[in-house]
Write a structure and sequence with these properties.
single chain, mainly alpha, globular
Amino acid sequence: MKISIQRSRNSGLFFVLTGAICWGIGGTVSQKLFQQYGIDVNWFVTVRLLIAGILLLMVQSFTVRRSQIFEVWKTRKMAVQLIIFGFFGMLAVQYTYMASIKHGNAAVATLLQYLSPIIIMFYLILRKRAVLTRKDVASATLALGGCFLLLTNGSLSQLSVSLPAMVWGLLSGVAAAFYTLYAVKLIEKWDSLVVVGWAMITGGVGLSLIHPPWKMDLANIPLETYVYLVFTIIFGTMIAFWFYIESLKSLTAKETSLLGSVEPLSAVGTTVVWLHEPFGMFQWLGTACIIGLILLLQSKPPRSAWANDK
């Protein structure tokens, strides 16, 4: 039994780490598409959600539980939950994150999104599923201090990133927290491929009613742009979200949120090295604060404090 549990946890670690790396690198590639190739963020989010969602359901169709693809819509309660998850989870986290990248850069957007563990922690405390500890106070201090340094680069007179990038990034953190918490009850009954696939399609269809994807002129786009688009759809969307949700089957929501700490590392690294994005000394210090926050929260708390976080 212990060996089986350990194998399950190991697979969960593999899924969350792989998904986080793909999401982080995908954010950097998305920044290149927005800022160097002029790709519209509304079109981009719509297309990647629709294509990635269809691909995930196609993968599910080759499994022994292919019947779940349509069974998931047969009960009104489940259909409502899936629509809520699609709009306020999947679409919200995708759009806010990409909008933050569009107005700033992938490094800052990803680091702001990674305030979601703090949001999850305080949500559980407010719901009386956890108690406030000195570690929580230290975590909040690191989070606020890291955000301040990251967004101001140590200057009290101006922001180092635009206000829209900051607002969208903070909203992305809230959306990521909701996405992680809400997904748990969905995958208790349904395969992650089905949940993530339909959530992507639901969000993509909803956004396409406002920003039709067929109105994009792709005739004059360079060939390498298509390569980047394929990468962000397959690895930065399909694999990233599928693996992240899959990890929730063997890890708690809090663990999954925290173990994705490689996401900001991969985003910051590729943004600075590949895109040559300037990063000030105080921004590096802010980055260290947020990564330190994640590492601090990863140290195992008493079981009684987080026993009901699923």
